[in-house]
Design brief:
By secondary structure, the chain is α/β, with parallel strands linked by helices. It contains 9 helices and 5 strands; from the N terminus they run ααααβαβαβαβαβα. α5 packs across α9. The structure holds CO-5-methoxybenzimidazolylcobamide.
């Protein structure tokens, strides 16, 4: 079995020890951290999502898989987010109110940090006012919102409405991401960009802040 498959299977089994072991092994074999992330960990989590949707596995299994995902991410984090480089701008991130999914948002934060941006992470279940208050107080350049549930996507629109009311819309760029979100949805609610994944978020933020 190839190493990506071993990581993916261990993650699906919720086996944190094996995920850590194979992740370290892949890195020792010279595989790029981003490939380990995308082809091993994220690929495994996609299978978990499909099985959950198909009622082949249940919530406790998903929780174990999420824990195993974090075991792998903990190893990759220092390699993806280099410390100590000068900040190229301030990005506020959070998962919207009512939504507890934070793996994707955390990954986006790690990659943005690795690209030299200062990250303020509000965590998950973040109320619209909290996004806007922090954006104003911390003078951030970008607000990044994540949503994984179709029921929580509309909160993104509420944040944008609050940004308009508080006078920062158009000055502070707003990007959105998460599995149920799309470019059409971003346009519909007035977000500045939709980002399919963390790499796209880095590219988009660099574009907005004119960083090469
Ligand atoms: Co839940 N969950 N979950 N879940 N969960 C989904 C999202 C679901 C699609 C599963 C399914 O049915 N197949 C489904 C949503 C259905 C829908 O809304 N249409 C679902 C459901 C229903 C639920 C509950 C309601 C289940 C229940 O209680 N009955 C419940 C809701 C709890 C809540 O939030 N209030 C729930 C709970 C959970 C756990 C807590 C068990 C756990 C989350 C643990 C955690 O995050 N700490 C969990 C998980 C793990 C998942 C799946 C399996 C995996 C999500 C994940 O972490 N993917 C997910 C199925 C799936 O998505 N395939 C599912 C890996 C991650 C790297 O990808 O988050 O998509 P993702 O992030 C990507 C991109 O989307 C993008 O970049 C990331 C990196 O590539 N991105 C951004 C994300 N945010 C971005 C922000 C950006 C830019 C890019 O800019 C700011």
């Amino acid at each position: 079995m190839e190493i990506y498959e071993q990581i993916s299977r261990a993650l699906q089994d919720g086996d944190t020890d094996k995920v850590s072991f194979f992740t370290n092994q892949a890195l020792a074999n010279g595989i790029e951290p981003v490939s380990v992330l995308n082809k091993g960990l994220i690929a495994g989590m996609d299978v978990v999502g499909d099985k959950f949707r198909g009622h082949e596995i249940f919530l406790p299994d998903v929780l174990l898989a999420a824990r195993a995902m974090y075991a792998g991410m903990d190893i990759l984090k220092p390699l993806l987010a280099k410390e100590g480089i000068p900040t190229a701008g301030k990005v506020l991130i959070g998962t919207v109110q009512g939504d507890l999914h934070d793996i994707g948002k955390n990954l986006v934060g790690i990659l943005l940090k690795g690209a030299g941006f200062e990250i303020i992470d509000l965590g998950n279940d973040v109320a619209p006012e909290k996004f806007i208050d922090t954006a104003i107080n911390e003078k951030v350049n970008i607000i990044g919102m994540s949503a994984l549930l179709t029921t929580t996507m509309p909160v993104m629109k509420k944040v944008i409405e609050a940004a308009k009311t508080r006078g920062i819309y158009g000055k502070t760029k707003i990007i959105i991401g998460g599995a149920p979100v799309s470019a059409d949805y971003a346009r519909e609610i007035g977000a500045d960009a939709y980002c399919f994944d963390g790499m796209k978020a880095v590219e988009t933020v660099k574009g907005f802040l004119a960083v090469k």
